[in-house]
Design goal:
single chain; about 775 residues; alpha/beta; inorganic pyrophosphatase (n-terminal core); seven-stranded mixed beta sheet; five-stranded parallel beta sheet; 27 strands; about 20% strand; RecJ_OB; DHHA1_dom; exonuclease
Length: about 775
């Protein structure tokens, strides 16, 4: 069996009275109702609220620490006409936070501008040089969004210049906090926000609400983008913020987003959280990775349609460049991850030279997915000694805790348990690797274990429909604490496996269903093609919609696969040579003479068809050496080999029949009429007779055997003569004819078929 990327774990969903009630009252498929109960719904009312989030689920702004002093200082600045600079961040959460806060301050009459730091010049968070430039340009109050808690030096500088700083942030808190006028943060020590895993834009939204003194529904579209992009929990009020934000996005009211969505494959009127996460967010993130993220704020806030189109194209072009860079750096990083120095490390620290520093986080995610190991990707530019890095982790290893106590080794650091950004002197690389290894030991994390993939249930072919997908979307938005369900599908057959994409890095195939074929797509897994072609797989899939030329159809996104039977290897040959029998295996032969020749000259066992049908073939490599007399015989062997590791097909045929084929009825009639007219001396006239009938000698001999079996003719002394009186009979029912037909059928299936056809036929035989 092929290796899986994950350890599969199937939920033990049960049919409870509550699940049945939810299914009936909410018109939900039973499987999804059971999933709701498993995810914590304890009543019908809870399920109804979950399926239709309401404004009442969103908490008042006053629940956040320091909200009152933050609003007071902002209102003081607004009334005094002070210049307020919104200091943002260059990712999608930071860009949406900045746009939201700027719009809010403009609405209440503030004198406001904004600054999104340059990833490469300023780095993440407050930067003293940037603060100095802003203050010298007239800034009198700095309002941070999606950053600030790690900016002690820059904020101390601002204070020294007589400029106040109001922090709104959500990142993990360092041991020492800056001296700011206010720190609005959901995890402030001793004043934690109740049940809220808000992103930066979520915190900014609460400040905006408090400033406006009314609920700003029109800003929820920005909230949805930032929260989805930052992968925060979608339980509790975040679920309502995102769900209601998606409704706002579907209205298309924000010109820049409308133009950007027009360049994607997303359907704006039916936009989903998945499309925001995989279409919108990456494009906004691409700006900060490669260019100027301030353009993203302009895109989100502009009212000029022409400018919106221009900026949308800039963003989309930037995203395409980002994709190419990610492929290039990921290939180099994966090669480094397999090096002897890294192969046994539980946590990877991969340092490259000249890797584009804007894509390090995405590359870290790709390496994490490919290896299962928490990964930090770092890059140092030529002539520099400080490497910039991004890290991504998985359940079981807290990346922030691993590094937080070792800030002495770092130039800059910030982040979350599962993601971080940092920079460090390249000379500290070995020390950091040792710190990560020690942290893995302390956290009891084994980098060799596979991450867990939870399967929500099994779907039949009948359930693979657009209607089921739409019912599933009622459980959206998906994310942490409400993960998009992954389902098990056990196909009886799969269509031809094809690669696709610019680099042929993706896979696509189809599954038959009663409603028609459903496409299955595996992104960045062209390496799965041989496995999917060679064995019947079980599939772990997410459900998605494909929109193409006005048509909407269900498609499945393949998360993982595992085979449930032996790998089918096409090794068909036209001649046999000794190296083919060097591997220890069970060699099945149908020809007795061949079996005798191989016995003692092949590694492993050389067995007959009968033996292969009855012996234990578990975990064995079974080699079908020659062609069987019929398909039934080899089918019986296949069915006994369901627990074998591999089925290798040599299918040698000394005298294949498929080129000659089966003589047709007219040729049989012509032969009989010729014999009725005159007996034929085969020794003298055999070749001429074959030429006359347009058959070869082998076919002629076969036809004569059929007539002999029917007693239509006799042969004496090489003379073929008719019988005076014959009984009408069906020549296709003779033993000779049936054996030849069986051999031709065998050759069609096992000799002349394509690899895909052979593997499909074997998989069908295994499934029966």
């Amino acid at each position: 069996m092929a290796q899986t990327n994950y350890e599969w774990q199937q939920l033990a969903l049960t049919k409870t009275p509550l699940a049945a009630q939810i299914a009936e009252q909410c018109d939900l498929p039973p499987l999804l109702a059971q999933l709701l109960v498993h995810r914590g719904c304890t009543s019908l009312a809870e399920a109804q609220q979950f399926l239709k989030p309401q404004l009442q689920m969103i908490k008042e702004p006053t629940a956040l620490h320091d909200m009152a002093p933050a609003v007071d200082r902002l209102m003081q600045a607004i009334e005094a006409g002070e210049l307020i600079t919104v200091y943002g961040d260059y990712d999608a959460d930071g860009i949406t936070s900045t746009a939201l806060m700027v719009e809010t301050l403009e609405t209440v009459g503030a004198n406001v501008n904004y600054y999104v730091p340059d990833r490469f010049k300023d780095g993440y968070g407050p930067n003293q040089a940037a603060y100095q430039r802003l203050i010298e340009a007239g800034t009198q109050l700095i309002l941070t969004v999606d950053n600030g808690v790690s900016g002690q030096e820059a904020i101390a500088y601002a204070n020294a210049q007589g400029v106040d700083v109001v922090i709104t942030d959500h990142h993990s808190l360092p041991a020492e906090l800056p001296e700011a006028v206010a720190i609005v943060h959901p995890q402030y020590p001793g004043d934690e926000y109740p049940g809220g895993d808000l992103s930066g834009v979520g915190v900014a939204f609460k400040v905006a609400w408090a400033l406006l003194e009314e609920f700003p529904t029109e800003l929820l579209d920005l909230v949805a983008i930032g929260e989805i992009a930052d992968v925060v929990s979608v339980a509790g009020e975040n679920r309502a913020l995102i769900a209601l934000g998606l409704q706002q996005l579907r209205l298309g009211a924000r010109i820049g987003l409308h133009e950007l969505l027009a360049l994607t494959n997303a359907d704006e009127a039916h936009l989903t959280d998945q499309e925001v996460g995989f279409q919108l967010a990456p494009r906004l993130n691409a700006l900060g990775r490669l260019q100027d993220a301030n353009q993203g704020v302009e895109l989100l806030t502009t009212l000029d349609e022409d400018r919106a189109k221009q900026l949308a194209q800039v963003v989309d072009d930037c995203n395409q460049k980002r994709q190419a860079l990610v492929q290039e750096v990921t290939a180099a990083a994966l090669a480094l991850a397999q090096s002897p120095a890294q192969k046994d490390q539980p946590v990877l620290l991969l340092v490259g030279h000249g890797w584009h520093q804007g894509v390090l986080g995405i590359v870290a995610s790709h390496v994490l997915q490919a290896t299962g190991k928490p990964t930090i990707i770092a890059s140092v530019n030529e002539g520099e000694t400080v490497a910039k890095a991004s890290g991504r982790s998985r359940a079981g290893f807290n990346l922030f805790d691993a590094l937080d106590a070792h800030r002495d080794l770092l130039v800059a650091f910030g982040g979350h348990p599962l993601a971080c950004g940092l920079s460090f002197e390249v000379a500290q690389t070995d020390a950091l690797q040792a710190v990560l290894q020690a942290a893995a030991t302390a956290q009891q994390f084994d980098g060799q274990t596979k991450p867990t993939l939870t399967l929500a249930g099994e779907l039949t072919a009948q359930e693979l429909t657009v209607d089921f997908y739409r019912q599933l979307q009622r459980l959206a938005p998906f994310g942490p604490e409400n993960e998009q369900p992954v389902f098990l599908v056990r196909p009886q057959q799969i269509g031809a496996v094809q690669t696709m994409g610019k680099q042929q890095q993706h896979l696509k195939f189809t599954l038959p269903t009663p409603a028609g074929e459903v496409a299955v797509v595996a992104f960045n897994h062209a390496d799965w093609a041989p496995v999917l072609q060679a064995a019947m797989p079980e599939l772990a899939v997410k459900l998605d919609l494909n929109r193409w030329r006005g048509q909407t159809s269900l498609q499945l996104l393949l998360e993982d696969q595992r085979t449930t039977g032996p790998v089918v290897e096409d090794a068909r040959v036209s001649r046999l040579i000794a190296p083919m029998f060097a591997e220890t295996a069970v060699y099945v032969t149908f020809n007795q003479q061949l079996r005798e020749n191989l016995t003692g000259n092949a590694a492993g066992q050389v067995v007959s068809a009968h033996q292969a049908q009855t012996m234990d073939l578990t975990d064995q490599t079974v080699v079908i050496v020659d062609c069987p007399p019929d398909l039934a015989t080899v089918t019986a062997i296949i069915q006994n080999a369901k627990t074998a590791a591999k089925l290798r097909w040599l299918c040698y045929s000394r005298e294949p029949l498929h080129q000659a084929g089966m003589p047709n009825r007219q040729q049989f009639v012509a032969l009989y009429q010729t014999i009725r007219q005159q007996a034929v001396n085969l020794n003298q006239m055999g070749s001429q007779l074959a030429n006359y009938l347009r058959v070869n000698n082998e076919q002629l001999i076969f036809m004569i055997h059929v007539f002999l079996e029917l007693r239509f003719v006799t042969i004496k002394g090489g003379v073929l003569a008719p019988v005076d009186e014959i009984t009408r009979a069906d020549l296709t029912q003779t033993m000779s004819y049936r054996q030849r037909a069986a051999r031709l059928e065998v050759e069609q299936v096992l000799l002349t078929s394509s690899t895909a056809q052979l593997q499909h036929w074997v998989q069908q035989a295994l499934a029966n």
